[in-house]
Design brief:
Number of helices: 13
Distance between the termini: 69 Å
Order of helices and strands: HEEEHHHHEHEHEHEHEHEHEHEEEH
Radius of gyration: 21 Å
CATH topology of the largest domain: TIM Barrel
Largest sheet: 10 strands, mixed
CATH class of the largest domain: Alpha Beta
Helix content: 25-40%
Oligomer: single chain
Strand content: 15-25%
Number of strands: 13
Length: about 375
């Protein structure tokens, strides 16, 4: 065995899960989220180098992801070279595909894929983004929040806080029971931010006819996009909507496979493609989906997953600003040390070899998941603040 092969062969894998409470609940038209679940995957090479990847859920199914990763996928990689990355990704995906492609399977694969990219960066002595074609040291972000439950007054105050921090782009939730409520809230935010870019997100709230009606009403406020107006499984209805909507359609947050994305791209059902690095199976697959969107001349806008999105965004020319969800970063949750600086609507990227994330393992230890825990479902209406 050569020294090079020993340095790159996988010797051990550790999978651990943590359930971290959010400082403030996230409430959209679809969910009430009180915790995030983070699954860390540490891969150690025969030469002793370690890489850490992660995958996350919004408080749901993290234990299932952990079990799939630990019991079924991790053993497949022992003894393999980390530079077989396409073969490794495909093998993990095929093993996960039989019980159901996408969803839990994609989340599990993503954790391994990120750990492998972390290792490749560390062995090269470079940030992983450099290895995939991203040389930028600064990228733009937009201020986002899961805030449908806030009163209009509280929503305005939150927006003012984001503006005071130097943010230049903003996204808010829509989908209140009353269209008039939505319009009043959008108008109030528009009054605060002026003509700065504003995105709207309905989290799959509407049926087709209602979606077009709402979007026609929202259009007067000149939103950059209307995100997830309908069920993400319904590509055909989105194609009809996109052909008639006065506002560009954005989606991808809950689309997992390249075949699902192809259904949207090939039918002109979307204008802003939003693959989430974790939900599509990691960096390797995200790049393919971004290139798919480029082939159709679409905007590429990474969804959520800030720490992963800042790795891939610099590699795609013309990529839209990265989403910074209030309270959603690892630093916001108190589980990682600050390695990148966010100010004035931009993020300064770390020069650390690998993915550039340093977890606070001592803090995380207090949130370790109980594999036998029963996780209750939160009611969104419980959190509504109607003044």
């Amino acid at each position: 065995m050569t020294q090079i092969s020993r340095q790159t062969r996988i010797a051990n894998i550790d999978v651990s899960a943590f359930r971290v409470p959010l400082k403030k609940p996230w409430v959209s038209a679809a969910h009430a989220i009180t915790h995030h679940e983070h699954i860390l995957i540490e891969i150690e090479l025969e030469g002793g180098v370690k890489g850490i990847g992660w995958t996350s859920t919004m408080g749901n199914a993290g234990l299932a992801v952990t079990a799939l990763a630990r019991s079924y996928l991790a053993p497949m990689l022992i003894g393999r070279s980390i530079y077989e990355h396409e073969a490794l990704w495909t093998a993990l995906w095929r093993r996960s595909h039989q019980p159901g492609p996408g969803g839990i399977a994609a989340l599990a694969v993503a954790g391994f894929d990120l750990a492998l990219w972390d290792l490749r960066g560390k062995l090269a002595g470079l940030p992983s983004r450099n290895l995939i074609g991203g040389e930028a040291s600064h990228i733009e972000i937009y201020a986002s929040a899961v805030n449908l439950h806030l009163s209009e007054k509280a929503l305005v105050e939150q927006t003012k806080e984001f503006l005071d921090l130097g943010n230049k782009r903003f996204k808010i939730k829509v989908g209140r029971e009353s269209l008039e409520e939505d319009l009043s809230r959008i108008a109030a935010v528009r009054a605060v931010i002026g003509d700065r870019p504003l995105m709207l997100d309905a989290n799959q709230r509407f049926k087709p006819g209602e979606a077009l009606q709402r979007i026609n009403a929202y259009a007067r406020f000149n939103p950059v996009w209307m995100e997830e107006p309908m069920a993400s499984d319904d590509a055909s209805s989105h194609a009809r909507l996109a052909a008639n909507s006065p506002v560009p359609i954005a989606l991808g947050e809950e689309v997992s496979t390249r075949f699902e994305f192809w259904n949207y791209v090939s039918t002109a059902a979307v204008h802003y493609l939003q693959p989430n690095v974790l939900k599509v199976g990691g960096i390797s697959e995200w790049l393919k989906l971004a290139h798919l969107g480029n082939c159709a001349n679409l905007f590429i806008a990474p969804h959520g997953a800030l720490e992963a999105s800042v790795i891939v965004a610099p590699a795609i020319p013309g990529c839209y600003a990265v989403e910074n969800i209030d309270g959603g970063s690892f630093v916001d949750q108190g589980i990682a040390f600050e390695t990148m600086k966010i100010e004035n609507g931009t993020v300064t990227l770390p020069d650390l070899p690998g993915l550039g994330v340093e977890f606070d393992m001592a803090t995380l230890a207090s949130y370790r998941s109980d594999p036998n825990a029963e996780i209750p479902l939160a009611d969104p209406k419980k959190f509504y603040d109607n003044e």
